[in-house]
Design a protein that fits this description.
Pfam families: Bax1-I. Keywords: Membrane, Transmembrane, Transmembrane helix. Its main location: membrane. One of its GO terms (cellular component) is membrane. The protein is mainly α. The chain has one domain. Helices cover about 80% and strands about 0% of the residues. The chain contains 9 helices and no strands. The radius of gyration is 26 Å and the shape is globular.
Length: about 260
């Protein structure tokens, strides 16, 4: 009785040396795709932080002028309606940049809107800073810098994935909104020191958490992340977080 050779394996074309070469090619393609994605993400992060750096430098310059130049300081304090106009401009630009992707990703309109957005928020920040003591402003800047660096380093190193806590951050947004409305109503009729301090502390904590969340969205190594095309969105979100942390600490550090 003749013994027949066993049938070849089902995936015969991948057996032997040829199969090894195909596997190596596939692994190589995956490796190249991984490094390409990593390079794109790193370039995206560099672009976002370059924009944020420019925004913060411009804001610091405005705050310095409004705080240390006496004629400008006096003019700003005596023309508060300009503050409310800048707030309206800031809010409109923010909503357009966040919710309208066509404009958010369309050059040069995205850059123009972001510049107007930065100038308006910078004016608001400078106006509020001009109403506080110079030492309090400097101290708030130092504390904000330390918090920002610490939270950024934590977000880069931690294994905790904050991007999956979407529901928690939605609740925080609701808490912030309700607290803001309540504080505005109470403080408009009568200034109560502990209400102002409590509101400022809540804002500082919430925006610090948002800073960690938004930073992890940039990294791309968590469950959810931003597209490399959303560099404007990423920049303005982190910029707003940092500015509101500064304003909250400034209110905590000095009494009007």
């Amino acid at each position: 009785m003749e013994i027949l050779d066993p049938p070849p394996p089902y995936d015969d074309k991948r057996s032997g040396a040829e199969g090894d070469r195909i596997c190596e090619m596939e692994e190589g393609d995956l490796r190249i795709a991984y490094w390409e994605e990593k390079n794109v993400r790193q370039a995206f992060i560099r672009k976002v932080y370059s924009i944020i750096t420019l925004q913060l430098l411009l804001t610091v310059a405005i705050v310095a002028i409004f705080t240390f130049v006496t004629p400008v300081n006096t003019y700003v304090i005596n023309h508060i309606p300009i503050y409310y106009i800048s707030y309206a401009v800031f809010l409109i630009c923010y909503l357009v940049l966040v919710f309208c992707q066509k404009i958010q990703r369309r050059y040069p309109w995205n850059i123009i809107l972001m510049t107007i957005f930065t100038l308006s928020l910078g004016y608001m920040t400078g106006t509020i800073a001009s109403m506080h003591d110079t030492k309090a402003v400097i101290l708030a800047m130092i504390i904000t810098t330390v918090i920002t660096i610490t939270v950024t380093a934590f977000s880069f190193q931690t294994k905790v994935d904050l991007t999956t806590w979407t529901g928690f951050f939605c609740i925080l947004s609701i808490v912030l909104f309700v607290t803001s409305i309540t504080a505005i109503i109470v403080l408009t009729y009568k200034y109560i020191y502990w209400v102002d301090m409590l509101y400022s502390a809540i804002c500082a904590i919430i925006f610090t958490l948002f800073l960690a969340y938004d930073t992890q969205l940039l990294l791309g190594n968590k469950r959810f992340s931003l597209s490399p095309e959303d560099y404007i969105y990423g920049a303005i979100q982190i910029y707003v977080d940092v500015i509101y942390i500064f304003l909250s600490i400034l209110r905590l550090g000095s009494r009007r």
